[in-house]
Write a structure and sequence with these properties.
Layout (H helix, E strand, L loop, with lengths): L1 E10 L4 H13 L1 E7 L4 H11 L6 E6 L2 E6 L1 H12 L2
Parallel strand pairs: 1-2
Antiparallel strand pairs: 1-3, 3-4
Helix pairs in contact: 1-3
Bound molecules: glutathione (GSH).
Length: about 90
């Protein structure tokens, strides 16, 4: 399993759109840091500060010139497939 150190997924367990993303990660055999917004209020605050909303899933992508916050499960899965599909 590959670990993508530049990625964090904001999510929570019972969210079906989050499950869609976690399944894609599992299929692609990629591990990312999971930031559960219901278990850690700091993650919830950071998400709301960056996005202005608490909607998940959101994939945080670290670039050299700053962070990108990618919402929408279908867009996140497309990004992951494009980057990690073998
Ligand atoms: N179109 C979005 C839907 C995301 C969505 O509705 N997430 C729900 C949880 S499953 C949510 O965060 N709702 C709370 C809110 O939007 O404040 C996607 O596919 O990611």
């Amino acid at each position: 399993m590959a670990r993508a150190e530049d990625l964090s997924l904001y999510h929570y367990d019972s969210c079906p759109y989050c499950l869609r993303v976690r399944r894609a990660l599992s299929e692609l055999d990629v591990e990312v840091e999971l930031r559960n917004i219901h278990q850690d209020s700091a993650h919830m605050r950071a998400l709301i500060e960056a996005r202005g909303a608490r909607t998940v899933p959101v994939l945080r992508i670290r670039h050299e010139d700053g962070d990108e916050w990618l919402p929408e499960s279908a867009d996140i899965v497309a990004y992951l497939r494009k980057r990690f599909a073998r």
